[in-house]
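Usage

Read records sequentially. Each one opens with the input sequence:
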Amino acid sequence: MRTFTTVAMLAVLTAVPAVAQQPDQPKPGPEHAMLKAREGTWATVMNAGGTECKGTTTYKMELGGLWLCGSTEVDMGGMKFAGKSLDTYDAASRKFVGVWADSMGTKPMTLEGTYDAKTKTLTSTTQAPGPDGKVVTWKAVDKQVDADTIDFKMFVGDAKEPMFTITYKRKK
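and closes with the structure output:
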């Protein structure tokens, strides 16, 4: 009996546990297809405070087609500026989510927003320190003018005029 109990216990302890029902992996949806349409290399022109800076942004869908990953480089009057972006659609919240980090800071900006299909405009907001260090609402307005042009505007606080604008033109 002792042998039988020992063998039975070993069998129980070494048996492969029943596979628990795993949630389905998220799959890219139509919102991700909209982001995927931005894949490629874009020439950028940023206007801020009367100054124009030129650069390049490259986008690629990664992480199972769920995240649009961007890399930006800009020459700001001899100073090199670099930024990284991650953008996706969160089906649970029904919101677009973005993360931005750049060479001018150590804290990423996280944004959340909605897309208006009629105007092809993604509007996102976040709470972050403004130019004076006080926390304010930042609003990003990203309009897909056509397949090869994007107009981006960033507003800070209650400003009626954008702090800066960026025009993206797809390189061919």
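Summary fields computed downstream for this record:
- The mean pLDDT is 89.
- The chain is about 10% helix and 55% strand.
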